[in-house]
Amino acid sequence: MSAALYPADLLSGSAETGYGVEQVALSSIAAEFGTPCYVYSKAALLGAWQEFVSALAPLSPLLCFAVKSNPNLAILNLLAGLGGGFDIVSGGELARVLAAGGDPGKVVFSGVGKSRAEIETALRAGVLCFNVESPAELLRLNAVALDVGVRAPVSFRVNPDVDAKTHPYIATGLKESKFGVAWQQAIALYEQADRLPGLAVHGLDCHIGSQIIELDPFAQALDRLLELAEQLASRGIHLQHLDLGGGIGIRYRDENPPAMTDYARILIDRLQGRKERLLLEPGRRIVGNAGLLLAQVEYTKTAGAREFALIDAAMNDLMRPALYQAWHEVRAVRDSGVARTYDLAGPVCESGDILARDRQLAIGEGSLVAFLSAGAYGSSMSSNYNTRPRPAEVLVDGAQVHLIRRREPLEDLWADESIPS
Ligand code: LLP
Description:
- Helix content is about 25%, strand content about 25%.
- The chain is α/β, with parallel strands linked by helices and about 425 residues long.
- The chain has two domains: about 5-40 and about 290-415, Lyase, Ornithine Decarboxylase, Chain A, domain 1, CATH 2.40.37.10; about 40-285, Alanine racemase (TIM Barrel, Alpha-Beta Barrel), CATH 3.20.20.10.
- Bound molecules: ligand LLP.
């Protein structure tokens, strides 16, 4: 399979005979592993990765997979095996990367609130770079590095002040965002970093937002970054890498996400022949359309003019619809009866626990449904709200299915709690 750019690219088979992923029927996955269950396709993941590698070949970038989008060890391990690096935002993510066999020398550490302990662990592990997001963090990083007896490699995450034209919760490049350092402050901060004995200036970083559909803001951000790199060079500060972040969008519904070749063209036109190495931090574009959430209808119910399908997946399993009003395409795994218009609601005690509205589906009690485009920020944002164990996760590889996360055992949910005696 090539890159799964559109939701249904992930599916094999048909609604008449029953959908599958690669050569495995979703009904057999449900029978073996239960529902709700996240299902990923190895071929789709590899296809999406390869699409980046091929389109950007003239620049041979280091692709640092955004761990937050899907931190499952099997997925990190697969990408590490392809030579991938990682973008992390916590000590927990660093530990996962190491547990998955990732190379710390290919890790960039982003995030606005790095603790002392996280900084120290990352320094000892030997990460490639810290993407520094505030003047205060710079001083802390310098102090911890001096304590550890190393020089910390740094980039600043600068805020190019462009509008990524995405959902306000995931646009990050504006002047008043909590992320990054102001464009106007950057030169002074680089000069300061250059003088601090615990630091070594390595690169320049930006990430303007996630689910970017229009490339113009991305090109503008890159132009601003290059301007800044020139200004730094004229002050004797020479960068080893430029990190353009992640953010390239996918189709959930009817968006027209950028073609990889158009994205690559912007980068190649501006960066070919330069000395700095290119780093990217893609998450969603790699794994978003390589995964789905499989669920089962428990009941159907009429409420006034609305028909509900009450399913066994909920907002705790897939939070995006409740949090961002996100739209995930839903397919009946196998059509059954006549199609009606349903709202698909979970069992969680919140009115917001509706995973999809107004979907024409031929389903009834016991039907399986698949929420597409759920590979990124699906499992990784799941919680135990309502004391619901988090779903199982499986990775399909041709005709094989690997369980890559067992369904959380119920007792684990309170294993760390105690009753005072
Ligand atoms: N680098 C940095 C510094 C980031 O903050 C992010 C995402 C990425 C890379 C990866 O972005 P991607 O390529 O996946 O778009 N939970 C939201 C998305 C939050 C994104 C946060 N940062 C959602 O479900 O849409």
